[in-house]
Design brief:
With 377 residues, the chain is mostly helical. It is 71% helix and 0% strand. It is built from 21 helices and no strands.
Length: 377
């Protein structure tokens, strides 16, 4: 580098706090060569340079080209880069639907910043159909990874109750997390609205629930199981959830038995407590009490041999019981059984009957099955 140029760059670095290293022609040439040879990191770096004009003129098409090359190879940052580009970053034209598409790709891979931006899109209905539940989901995913902006935004959502129930405890929980990372906006809101009252009220309510549960109240035990199972609750604790569900289940609480069966399932529960035999035991207990969802779940356990030897006849029996109680999943599956002759004599009319019952409840697969069968006649 020319001596005057080097001195100028050093001066700018000291005065303006610049941290971007100067781009040497040889270095850029090497990045391009590696990118063309299929190096995903070089492809990402080259796209970034075209996006921000670092060592090359800004070029929208080239930025997209190289980001997509890197994304196709599974580069973690590339989908987020594409999301930023389509979101109007660095002065490029905004295309919100495409931004949402790429943010979702990155968010699904665990990219915290993409999760935050996707959550905001769902909250505001920009680039995605407005969906507050999805907004909360993605903002919480980002918040759990320590993204302070997401923690602040989520805290405001819970404080304001926009499209959801107000929850001062959760609001203060996430605002405090953002404050601990020195988020300036969070500090102002937290100091103004969060105090010991919100936390003490939550703690008092939890203690009262535990007092009732410890006295043997099955409904309180089930409610505590739900609270500790809820990942959105500040008290979330899987082990405590299993403990209280078991206490209620042992007293014959059908909902607790069903939830316990789900938690012990290695696929659905996917927790450290997974146990196929226990899952089958508690699901059967609940099903025998007439719990419709447990009956369908038990039918599936017999289909796939989870905790029991596979038994299609038993599966049909429990699926029928559940379907007759109006469980739309059971109605649809029973339709499939009659259509294909799985465990029952093949019968198109009976299949259509059960598909129709599911469709009448708004179940789209049931509607599709009816159209398919009518077209094939």
């Amino acid at each position: 580098m020319h001596k005057k140029t080097a001195l100028l760059f050093m001066s700018l670095t000291l005065v303006c706090g610049l941290t971007v290293a100067p781009v040497y022609a040889g270095e850029l040439s090497e990045i391009k060569q590696r990118a063309e040879q299929g190096d995903s990191q070089a492809q990402h770096d080259l796209a970034w340079r075209y996006l921000y004009g670092k060592g090359v003129p800004k070029n929208h098409a080239q930025a997209i080209y190289w980001y997509e090359k890197a994304a196709d190879q599974g580069h973690f940052e590339a989908p987020y880069g594409l999301g930023l580009l389509y979101d109007g970053e660095a002065g490029f034209a905004q295309k919100s639907i495409m931004a949402g598409y790429w943010y979702e790709k990155a968010a699904g891979a665990g990219h915290a910043k993409a999760q935050y931006r996707l959550g905001i899109m769902y909250d505001g209905g920009r680039g995605k159909a407005q969906d507050r539940a999805q907004a909360v989901y993605w903002l919480e995913e980002a918040s759990k990874q320590g993204n302070a902006d997401a923690q602040y935004y989520l805290g405001l959502m819970y404080r304001n109750g926009a499209g959801m129930s107000k929850d001062l405890y959760r609001a203060c929980h996430w605002l405090k997390a953002a404050v601990e990372q020195r988020h300036p906006g969070a500090l102002v809101v937290y100091n103004g609205e969060c105090n010991d009252t919100a936390f003490s009220q939550y703690a008092d309510a939890l203690r009262e629930q535990e007092r009732q549960a410890n006295q043997g109240d099955a409904n309180a035990q089930f409610a505590l199981g739900n609270k500790y199972a809820d990942e959105k609750d500040a008290a979330h604790d899987r082990a405590k959830s299993v403990h209280w569900y078991e206490k209620a289940a042992e007293q014959g609480h059908a909902d607790a038995q069903y939830r316990l069966g789900m938690m012990y399932d290695a696929v659905v529960g996917a927790g450290p407590e997974s146990n196929a035999d226990k899952s089958a035991y508690w699901t059967a207990k609940s099903a025998e009490q007439g719990h419709a969802r447990a009956q369908f779940y038990l039918a599936m356990q017999y289909v796939y041999g989870v905790g029991f030897p596979s038994d299609v006849g038993k599966a049909v029996e429990w699926c029928q019981k559940s379907a007759e109680q109006g469980n739309l999943n059971a109605q649809f599956y029973l339709g499939q059984m009659y259509e294909t002759g799985q465990g029952v004599p093949q019968n198109a009319d009976t299949a259509l009957k059960w598909y129709k019952k599911a469709a009448d409840q708004g179940y789209n697969p049931g509607m599709s099955a009816i159209r398919r069968m009518k077209q094939s006649k």
